[in-house]
């Protein structure tokens, strides 16, 4: 890994994006100022199985989108998508797609495992293509920083796959926070305890020792991509449980964090945290084999953010709970301990509290204090279509990278803290390092597998 002070960009450049998102800084216009001239968007979908199939269908439902190319490392998934888009050109390798389709596409969506997000999105952006990328934006903090800067510099349209950010609930919650309905915010509690989701993280041992033969339809080398080569194992990596492995995923907080953070981040206008610390599942912490390979089944991460006009005092403590860890009972009791939304945010303000259920309607507390108030509500919009419209010259997207990049960086700092549990990591965002615990710096960026380094990056 390169030393932090050798990254080819500064924190100030990066945080201008956060300022653009929170306070309408003029730089915001730089993340969506290259409209497609033909009035139709020529789009390529990279990753068309599972979540990728849903993304593809959403893009195809826009009346001004032409699906011209499809890419997937799994031939069976590619065939299913091709049956619905018979005129699209087909690829297994995204690098070949970007090379051969250089003059034939305007936009791509990146819906693949986390470890390959940066390589694909960065290459597409450097080629001048608009990019819709699934969450989290990247696997590593350093990747997020560089991808954000590239998007701003290239002036392409970008959108993070935080679809709920475009829902009526989240958009209304952002407005209510900015309107000061609960006063200045004193503390924030975020959680993701979705029933059944822990099954995707129920890995209690190291990676398998014996390699299995990958299905004939799956190009395992391309699936592994930038990560270290690992033996194929059925039902362990592809297509679902890769999220539980440090090589490929970012754990529960990285996977869902971008959804739960979004309204809080926008509403409060947060910036880089001052520090982060994590408490993790004890059985995971006590197992060297698990700690070197997998993510824990539950964690409690605490960030301290600098204060601003939306926050009481000079800093805000924000806590995250997932898996087997839950927000304090007294916080859940503000709504209902028994019916507290499994995935949600709770903001405690000087004039009340705001509960933001993931995908639901925000709730002001105590309810009787806000009864009868004429509250402004914001309508939902289609996250995918809004991106397409921006590519065609419309207003900027809900979750453009100048907005969502700094947020993703903060979230991924939490995944670093998980790997050094119990240590308060002071964050020097200017130099991209932890001055009080330099050993943790190595988790800010991976070393890519030989042959997979990306031209122009790092």
Automatic annotation (TrEMBL):
Signal peptide segment: none
Domain Gfo/Idh/MocA-like oxidoreductase N-terminal: residue ranges: 43-161
InterPro entries associated with the record: Gfo/Idh/MocA-like_OxRdtase_N (IPR000683), Gfo/Idh/MocA_oxidrdct_glycsds (IPR050463), Gfo/Idh/MocA_OxRdtase_bact_C (IPR043906), NAD(P)-bd_dom_sf (IPR036291), TAT_signal (IPR006311)
Any matching Pfam family: GFO_IDH_MocA
Domain Gfo/Idh/MocA-like oxidoreductase bacterial type C-terminal: 195-289
Superkingdom per UniProt: Bacteria
Protein name: Gfo/Idh/MocA family oxidoreductase
Species name: Ravibacter arvi
